[in-house]
C-alpha cells in the first residue's frame, strides 16, 4: 500500500512538525506500507493552468503523479485567514476531478485559533468529496497552544494523531477488501 503524507503549505513549521510525527507513527505501526512525504515548502510547484497533470514538468509532475499513485493520503494543512492555503488548493486544481477515487484521505489541521475548527468541515471535506475521496470522517485539530519551540507538547495530540493513522489504515484495508471481493465476482 502506498501512502502519501502531504504537508500543504510552503511556509511555517507547525504543519511539518505534526506531519513528521504522523509519518513516523505510521511507519512504525505499518512497516510494510510504502510512505512518501510531499512537503510543499520543499517543492517548486507551478500553478495549475488546466493542463493534464502528466503534462507538467519537474516537482509539479512528481507531486501530482505521486498523489495519483497513492492508496491513501494524509493531508496536513494550516489555516490561514480562515481558509486552506493556496498551495494546497493548487494541488487539488492540478489533479483530475476524480483523482481521489478509490483513495482514502485523512487530515489534520494546525491553526492559531480555535475559531478555525470548522474550516476542514466547510472547505476541505467538500473538495475531497467532490474529487471522490473516501474520507476518514474524524480529523485532528491542533492549536497554537499545543506547540512549543517547534515541538508538539500536548500528549492528547499524539493520541489523536495515532488514532488518525489507525483509522486511515483500517478504512484503507476495509475498502481494499470490499473492492477485491466485488472484482472477484466478475469472470473477465
UniProtKB/TrEMBL annotation:
Domain NADPH-dependent FMN reductase-like: 1-144
Pfam families documented for this protein: FMN_red
Protein name as annotated: FMN reductase
Molecular function GO terms recorded: oxidoreductase activity
Keywords: Flavoprotein, FMN, Oxidoreductase
Entries under SUPFAM superfamilies matching the protein: Flavoproteins
InterPro entries recorded: Flavoprotein-like_sf, FMN_Rdtase-like_dom, NAD(P)H-dep_FMN_reductase
Amino acid at each position: 500500500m502506498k501512502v502519501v503524507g502531504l504537508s500543504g503549505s510552503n511556509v511555517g513549521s507547525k504543519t511539518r512538525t505534526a506531519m513528521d510525527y504522523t509519518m513516523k507513527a505510521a511507519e512504525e505501526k505499518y512497516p510494510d506500507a510504502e510512505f512518501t512525504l510531499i512537503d510543499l515548502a520543499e517543492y517548486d510547484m507551478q500553478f495549475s493552468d488546466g493542463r493534464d497533470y502528466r503534462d507538467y514538468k519537474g516537482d509539479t509532475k512528481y507531486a501530482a503523479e505521486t498523489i495519483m499513485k497513492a492508496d491513501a493520503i494524509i493531508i496536513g494543512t494550516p489555516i490561514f485567514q480562515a481558509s486552506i492555503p493556496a498551495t494546497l488548493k493548487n494541488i487539488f486544481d492540478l489533479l483530475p476531478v476524480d483523482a481521489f477515487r478509490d483513495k482514502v484521505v485523512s487530515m489534520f489541521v494546525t491553526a492559531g485559533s480555535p475559531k478555525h475548527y470548522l474550516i476542514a468541515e466547510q472547505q476541505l471535506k467538500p473538495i475531497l468529496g467532490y474529487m471522490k475521496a473516501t474520507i476518514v470522517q474524524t480529523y485532528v485539530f491542533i492549536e497554537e497552544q499545543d506547540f512549543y519551540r517547534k515541538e508538539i507538547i500536548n500528549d492528547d495530540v499524539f493520541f489523536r494523531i495515532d488514532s488518525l493513522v489507525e483509522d486511515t489504515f483500517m478504512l484503507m484495508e476495509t475498502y481494499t477488501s470490499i473492492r477485491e471481493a466485488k472484482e472477484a465476482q466478475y469472470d473477465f
